[in-house]
Write a structure and sequence with these properties.
Rossmann fold, 469 residues, seven-stranded mixed sheet, alpha/beta, OB fold (Dihydrolipoamide Acetyltransferase, E2P), 26% helix, 9 helices, 22 strands, 3 domains
Amino acid sequence: MQINKNDIPDELTLEIEKLSNLGLGIAKLDGYVVFVPNTCPGDVVKVKICKKNKSYANADVIEFVEPSSNRVEPFCKMQKVCGACQLQYIDYEAQLRYKKEIVQDAMRSICSSNIEVRNVVASPIIKEYRHKIQYPIGQTKESRRILAGYYKTGSHELVNIKHCPIQPSECDKIIEYIRENAQKLGISGYNEKSHNGELRHVVIRASRAFNKYLVLLVVNAGKISKKVKQLAENLYSDFDSVCGVGVNINNKKTNLILGEITEFVSGFDFVEENLCDKTFKIGAKTFFQVNPATADNIFRYIKDYIKNNFDKPSILDAYAGITAFGICLSDIASKVVSIEEVEDSVELAKIVAKENDINNIEFHSGDAGQFFSKETLLGRQFQVTILDPPRKGCSVNSLDYALKLTRDKIIYVSCNPATLARDLKYLIEHGAKVEYIQPFDMFPHTYHVESVAIIDLKNVQIPEQKLPY
């Protein structure tokens, strides 16, 4: 019988058993769950209960009575105040084991305990791996000093980051240049509460292969001011590594980083990156994996799987973005059909295909649902479908279309174990079989984990409900 929350003392000593899907330590007291941040399985900690609920409580550490053997000293001085690297105090090999457990727990609690989850493939690099940087910009009240960094965990308090060891060191130099020169030019930092201030965010897309950087200045304004334009021009001229600088207009009260309008002031509007021996063009708003080294591992893994199990299959690259999967898989496919609703991404993909001398990709721009409906009516099927949705996963309609349009295998790439488990449950209920899940560490030192699920459709029962469009 579970203990009553009113019987739990305000202070007690607990042993951390595992990590939650959000990287919080989990301890249990007669079945009652206590979540403790900044802890590691094996830690024995004295805690103070902060908030009690019917089935769980939140607590903070007062003292480490007996630290876990897997605890290490964080290599970043800002780890305790910056919300970016939640697990940096845990040995890297242990991080990989805990991430496997996070995927396994999601499968057991939502989907099925019978799904094989393989060991997590480590990131080839665990420092300077992050190649997309999005820094909020602020300003101090008294000195009017420009701030740039990440928010403190669980708050919107901006932590000024001078050096971030998980991103390329050149980014630190670019950000510091923007801090100093924005202040010299009289450009104000953004105040989230009052919605005042001009410079709102700095977004950097970095190229691992070519050591080039695309910089976007996001401004809270209706048009680009002379001061911001001057900052963009100065940045481009003073950094050989910067291949282009643009300005994005976002003057709405929103938590979205980018607005709809972007103007490039200097240089190119894209940066190039290599993946699977192909060169891609990545725009300011283009989705591309933040860790190119792990992304290359994932793409090559999927390519090897398809090559070893099919002879020149037809492939559907659904929700394709810049058709990274389709382009990487094109030389082992008879045909690739790509659908993406963002037209700019499709146009970039077409350029990349032409430059890589790829002629077997059929590009489609427009609403994915309408495209899938048309393909279903035409009776076209693909041997393999690649699904790579955002964190919210796939809609039921998307899964239904995938079942109707795919003859043999769905390869589902996910950055969220919970929504992956939910979607796999739906597919299993319609006769699909999950062969296994292969996790990859896309985000070292965080609780995030990327997973590739291989799904067999030999015994699928096609959903009977009428699909939209």
